[in-house]
Amino acid sequence: MPTPHRTTVRRQLLALFAALLPLLAALLVAAPAAGARTEAADAVPAATLTEVADFGTNPSNLRMYVYVPENVAAKPAVLVAVHWCTGSGPDMYNGTEYDTLADQYGFVVLYPSVTRSSKCFDVSSPQALRRDGGSDPVGIRSMVDWATRTYDADTGRVFVTGISSGAMMTNVLLGDYPDVFAAGAAFAGVPFGCFATTDGSEWNSACAQGTVTRTAQQWGDTARAAYPGYTGPRPRMQLWHGTEDDVLRYPNFGEMIKQWTNVHGVGQTPATTDSPQSGWTRTRYGGTGDRAPVEAISLQGVGHNLYGYGMAAKVLAFFGLDSGGPTPQPQPGACKAGVTTNTWNTGLTASVTLTNTSSTSVNGWRLGFTLPTGQTITNGWGATYAPSSGAVTATNASYNATLAPGASVSIGYQASHTGNSAAPGAFTLNGTACTAG
């Protein structure tokens, strides 16, 4: 028979357990399910560039901006878009179309922003050129980790692209974190490690002038040394460079091809060569399709400021982000498109009117059509056009992305032709055939 003291203690423990049961039940009910949005996600307004503080380890005091579309995909991809020297995250946001593409495909965009006086990313210090060594790459890795936690993002679909200093950082991030990034796209950059300095300087004149040359094996070893012992898959790389680049000179393009083909263990002889646009030469290494291990695009006669609207669509095709986003609108039979042309001996202008005939708004549109053989778009308005010939997609501008029910938008383009000046015969809106009108 229990003693009175033991009986009292037992009663007290039972009473305490009974009191805790409602609290434990409440906690279980309130606990977020796996994959649920976090409070941090709810604090970021959709379709608005938003600065995020306290995103994690940030040794060089970078600022972080994020863009999340209204219809963010389940387990979205993450794209890091890195600005040029003297630029900023908001400048990269305003100067590229990744936000409107995110609206179409449902991925999250991160815009790192430098706070040091040069507004250039650190791609030269010993800290930056080794995994978790410190400086800017660590801060950017923290931004990626924040995004994958906050939006339950797909860690197998994290990508990076950059322009100039951002292109150099793209090379650095792929070397430092091959297990984080699936692919990169560098517009006017230099190889990983080419800008390395030991005196604290941010600038390496020899590299910028294109006089630093190494064998493919040496370049590959330089990139691999950032993460010794790593044996996993390597990120694919897309390279863009103008032949007349006078800031980061054109020889760097060839050195980057050497580096990333060696990193992937593929030959330096292109598997395929084509010209997707006049003045462009595209070579692919280790594969022939949009997902080749290395893709390189040389722009004849173009200088350092080579990035132009429409190029982002090529980046997304290489990344594989041009599908799998939110369900396109409108439903079948919910659009009307008409076109009028003015022609002359070797050219034409076309005015296109697109009407939303559905009962719901269209938020982000892509108008598809095929140009007759021999026609090439030379400029356009109201949308971005890519590619310039063949099967073309016109993507909305930021100011005309929304089409209310019954609303219309007018866009147009100028094109050259070799004799056939006919108008396109059919149009699709977000993949759905439109009626003629």
**Main sheet makeup:** 10 strands, mixed
What is the count of DSSP helices, taking H or I runs of 4+ residues? 10
Parts with pLDDT < 50 across at least 5 consecutive residues: 1-10, 20-35, 326-333
- How large is the radius of gyration? 26 Å
Helix/strand/pairing class, anyone?
Answer: alpha/beta
Distance between the termini: 94 Å
Strand order of the largest sheet: 1-2-4-3-5-6-7-10-9-8
Counting copies of identical and different chains, the oligomeric state is single chain
Average pLDDT score: 89
Number of strands: 22
Shape: globular
- Give the helix level as a range of percent: 25-40%
Could you tell me the strand content as a percent range?
A: 25-35%
Question: What does this molecule look like?
Answer:
This protein is an alpha/beta fold. About 25% of the residues lie in helices and about 25% in strands. The chain has ten helices and 22 strands. Strands 1-2-4-3-5-6-7-10-9-8 form a ten-stranded mixed β-sheet, with helices on both faces. It has a five-stranded mixed β-sheet with strand order 15-19-12-11-22, with no helix packed on it. A hairpin with a 5-residue loop joins strand 8 and strand 9 (about 280-285). Helix 8 (about 215-225) packs across helix 9 (about 250-265). The chain starts with a helix and ends with a strand.
What's the topology here?
Elements: H1 4-30, H2 39-42, E1 50-52, E2 63-67, E3 78-82, H3 89-95, H4 98-105, E4 108-113, H5 135-150, E5 158-163, H6 165-176, E6 183-187, H7 205-208, H8 216-224, E7 236-242, H9 251-264, E8 272-274, E9 280-285, E10 294-299, H10 311-319, E11 335-343, E12 347-356, E13 362-363, E14 366-370, E15 376-381, E16 383-386, E17 391-396, E18 402-403, E19 408-416, E20 428-429, E21 432-433, E22 435-436
Parallel strand pairs: 3-4, 3-5, 5-6, 6-7, 7-10, 11-22
Antiparallel strand pairs: 1-2, 2-4, 8-9, 9-10, 11-12, 12-19, 13-18, 14-17, 14-20, 15-19, 16-17, 20-21
Helix pairs in contact: 8-9
